[in-house]
Every structure is written in structure tokens, then in C-alpha cells.
Amino acid sequence: MYYIGLDVHKKTISYCVKDAAGQVQSEGMVASTRQELNAWIKTLPQPRMMAMEATIFSGWIYDHLLPHAEKVKVAHPLMLRAIAVAKRKNDRLDAAKIADYLRCDILPECHMASTAIRDRRRALRYRSLVVKQMVQMKNRVSGLLMETGVSYSKSQLHRAGYFKDLMWMHPEVSDAIRPLLKFCRERIDQAQELDRRLVGSLERDPLLSKRLERLRTVPGVGSITALTWALEVGDTARFRTIKQAVSYCGLCGDEKSSAGKTMRTPISKQRNKHIQCVLIEAAKLAVRQNHELAMVYDKELQRGNPNRATLAVARKLVAYLLAVDRRKEDFLPAEKFKQMVAA
Fold it and tell me: What are phi and psi of 138, to 5 degrees?
């Protein structure tokens, strides 16, 4: 078996090929294009395994190399600390170290979702960008009105009819800001339409539709939460326990223990930030829809911290979502589940 370490960059890929004894067979650099990679693959010995560090470019390179190797692995960048803190660091040495990690079977591998899931995840994350831009435009509208001293109803500002009357009929709105208000409103309408189309296309996707229907039966879980869970988590079989899923979602703290002293942080920074944000917002809504989750919230709230109470509910939501995905059945509250077992 030959072990190939890749140090991936935007324009080039440095590589190092080692045999089972750790001897360097070849090393060099190849351009980060499909044509160059095809020509380079033909020169490599077989059988072979490849590994690279996770970057923004790793996805398409992983897909392109996967049919041409026994295995292709992607390493977690935060776990490759030996490369980051080395006294000598260059692309050639980085590729050699990755090859050694792969050869010794100590590569800190990270999960790579299927191409189909990653393609749909890209669309969902683009939708998040669209929503952020829409919120920025709404804030800009409010800012323009406040800068010029225009009185308005905050609750009705972004309704189409009210905004139209405000822009053209309000005596305090000057001609100087009308073009800016019109531009902002057009951008908001475009963003809302694009948001609707993106979410609708994902919900109708045959790969996701049945799974989304099951996930939406969980209290507090709507279309966006279900989509985010399905596309950010992907295959739930990679989580052996609920704790692993909770850790991936960033709903637990870091622990640093040494010499009998333990320090815990409130919440971990090593997480999937996309699903963390969505689950916390869903937890705030879920306590109003399910008394079991409300009891979890109230029990934790007695300790005096509402944020930690929300996190406790979010962790419970993870357990519910994980159970629905594993059983491939709709969510059942505890009372109904007990009645079914008793019957």
C-alpha cells in the first residue's frame, strides 16, 4: 500500500507518496485543476490511500480522487496541531506529515457527507446568506427613517402596503431618501422571493421530503430546523451516543482538567455553528408547544440561568431528532408512547 499526503491550496496541491516503510517514493506539486489531477493520478503507484486537510477546496478534490484510490480521508484541521506549531513549516513538509499520519493510522479523520447532501447543504447555507442580507436591508430602512426624523410604526414597517404609503404619502419623508428606500425595498422583496424558492425546492427534494416530514413532528421543529438538521448532520449513524450529537451541535461546554483541577466553559466553540444557532432558536419556541420540554426548561431555570435552561431544551431536542431519524418514525410524546407499549 502507498500512502499519499496532500497539502491543498487554491491554485496548487503539494503531494508526498510514501510506502509502508515510510520511504518517500515521490513528492512534488500539481495544479489544482481536474485536468492536471487526471494526468497526475496516472503516474501514481497502486494500491494507494490518500489524505488531505479539510479546507474550502477539499470537497471537489475529494470527490474527484475518490474513484482512483482505495480510500480518501479528510483530516480535521484543528487536530493537526503538530503541523501548525512546527518550527519548520512548508507545503512539502506538511504533505509528508499528512502521509505519515495516514501510514501510521493516526490521522484525525473528519466526516465527509455524501456529494448529494453537500450540494443541498450549499443551497441551504446560501439561503442563510440571503436572509442575513435581507435583515441588513431592513435595518438600513429603519436607519434611514431615524436619521431623517421620520415617525413610523415599527411593527408594520416592512409590510408592503404600509411601506408604500409611508414612502409616498408621509409628509416627513423627503425626496432625498425616497430612491434609497425604494432600492432597499426592492432588495428585500428579491431576497424574500429567493428565500421562498430555495426552501421550497429543498422541501420538495425526493431525497429529503420523507425525512423532513418525520422531523417536523418533533415539537418546535419547523421547515428550517428540519432542513438544517438533515443537511448539516447528514447520516446520524456516525453518532454512537446522544452526547456525541450534542457535542457536534455545540450544546455543551469544553473541559480542561489538569492536576486535579477542572475548568469548564459554558459552551464549546468547536461546533457546527449553523445547526447550533437554529437549535437554540427552536428550543425557545418548543417550550410553548410541549409540556415535557417546558418541564425541562423550568427545572433548569430553578438554578437561576435562563440561557442554560434553553440549552437544556436544545439538548433534549437533539435526542428527539436523533430518535426520529434512527427509528424512521414520527415523533410520539411520552404519554402516547407509554399507551402504545401498554396496549
Answer: -65, -40
Q: pTM for the complete prediction?
A: 0.87
Q: How much of the chain, in percent, has pLDDT values that exceed 90?
A: 63
7-11: long-range contacts, CB 8 A cutoff, minimum separation 24: 7/52, 7/53, 7/91, 7/92, 7/94, 7/95, 7/98, 8/32, 8/52, 8/53, 8/55, 8/57, 8/58, 8/61, 9/55, 9/57, 9/91, 10/57
pLDDT digits (tens, 9 = 90+) for 295-319: 999 999 998 889 889 999 999 999 9
In the chain, where are the structural domains located?
2-103, 117-203, 209-342
Give the per-residue pLDDT at 160.
87
DSSP 78-108: GG-HHHHT-SS--HHHHHHHHHHHHHTT---
Regarding the domain with residue range 2-103, which homologous superfamily does it belong to in the CATH classification? Answer: ATPase, nucleotide binding domain (3.30.420.40)
